[in-house]
Amino acid sequence: MKKSIELLVILAVSLVTPSVASAQAAGGAGALGSFLPLILIFVFFYLFLIRPQQKKSKEHQKSLSALKKGDKVITSGGIYATVNAVRDNVLDIKIADGVNVQIAKQSITTVMTKDAEKQAKAPDVVKK
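Structure (tokenized):
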């Protein structure tokens, strides 16, 4: 990924440099040539920053809407919990034996999958 970004930057610079030099030599002629660097920068930002962030946001919203009883989650405060009940935008979660808390659904940062649970090594309280 890093190499592809570097190659794209090198390509953009090599395409932009001659067009800027020719536009300056022609006395400002060629409005498209002067806007080409801005267009390339916008395309770069869209492809490598905006679009991936939108995809990540959609996936997160999808995982929040699919929450159900028994799912293991991590809150924005770093608390490992198990979902006991889902009501509209409020979750009733269990963070320890006999300790139930109600939180806003938006405060969930991660819904634990089997692979993520193994990597995170959740505390024994959550595994019960």
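The chain is about 55% helix and 25% strand. Residues 2-64 form one domain.
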